[in-house]
Amino acid sequence: MSPKVELKHVTKKYESLVALNDLNLTINDGEYLTLLGPTGSGKTTTLLLIAGLIQPDKGGEIYIDDVPVNDISTENRNIGFVFARYALFPHLDVVDNLIFSPRVKGENLEESRKSAREMLELMVLSGRGDALPKELSGGMKQRVALARTLMSGAKLLLLDEPLGALDARIRMALRKELRKIVKDLKITAIHATNDITEAFLISDRVAILREGTLIQIGTPAEVYEKPRNIFVANFLSDTNFFGGIVKSVDIQKKSALLVLEGELRAKTNKTSKPENFRIVLGVRAEDIQIKPRFSMDEPNHFHGEVESSKFISGTNRYEVILENKGLVIIRVKASKEWFEEGDRVTISFHPRETLLFDYPEEGLEKALELE
Ligand SMILES: Nc1ncnc2c1ncn2[C@@H]1O[C@H](COP(=O)(O)OP(=O)(O)OP(=O)(O)O)[C@@H](O)[C@H]1O
Ligand SMILES: [Mg+2]
Hints:
The chain contains 10 helices and 20 strands. Helices cover 23% and strands 36% of the residues. It has helices at 43-51, 94-98, 100-104, 109-122, 138-150, 168-184, 196-202, 220-225, 230-236, 364-367; strands at residues 5-14, 17-27, 32-36, 61-64, 67-68, 79-82, 156-160, 188-193, 205-210, 213-218, 239-252, 255-260, 264-268, 278-284, 289-292, 301-312, 315-322, 326-333, 344-348, 355-358. The protein is α+β, with helices and mostly antiparallel strands.
């Protein structure tokens, strides 16, 4: 069995700054959970609290396997962690760093060395076993720290941007390996990152934080398909937002058709938005079609002019200025036709490919801020 971790009403303030605000979170036995959020959202703070390196404010409780650990020191929580600032033993070579913990525990040294060599192969570090930490690059040191933690035998792993300093190719390979090792060894892993792709590829569930508050938790598919608010939608993928008022609700079968001011239509299962209700409609950049200008008097079709057009790893990304409707971002597969700056175009989207949100109390602009 691997540990279950629970945080109950955990708040952490630094003077007037609320780094973490009444966090309630359960990480299940054997789960791979990522804490995902922009910089300053409280990810590292959460990991430091679980590790016992800082203490929650009064009233907050942390449990590991149903045991309150507030009064248990870091050493006795039996946690492996990889923090960006956590250094290797500088006087030990790579292999000795890796077998440090097995050695302390009195495990068979020959076998430990053998697993260390296997681990180094996995980390693309074969042949560097004799190197001292100062002879390694930043990315190599990070991989050694990760390997050492994986070899420590801890059943609870805390990882703070463990793949952050690595080059793109190694990072991709290690994401897969890291998840596989965690699952094979039946470890509970809590991983902080601001890289959405990484979080989606590696996790069972993702917890999305903003300014110290947990906004949403769910599987990658759940949070992507049903973002709780416009911050999550915007953070997870390039999304265009239009504010409006519900003009009429037309119930057809199980769904409702909402007509917004400016003739935007959205299909929804939620019939709870009454007429005159203020809402925001979101359309993801990849759900918008772009065509040479054509005459069309249907809802969800708009005329505009291409303001910028870029090719980014297999996709064309356009910014189109709409007549009276501001700017939209569009992403289409690069095999389709190409538009130049200044081209007059018509853009459209299907009512089904829309997300509906209540209009945020704090205002649209503030709700979309990523920092
Ligand atoms: N020791 C400290 N003293 C004062 N403020 C702190 C301290 N540690 C963190 N903070 C503040 O708490 C907030 C949360 O910080 P935290 O390091 O948890 O963010 P993060 O999500 O890990 O961000 P990043 O992605 O940049 O690592 C930030 O506003 C930060 O400035
Ligand atoms: Mg951090």
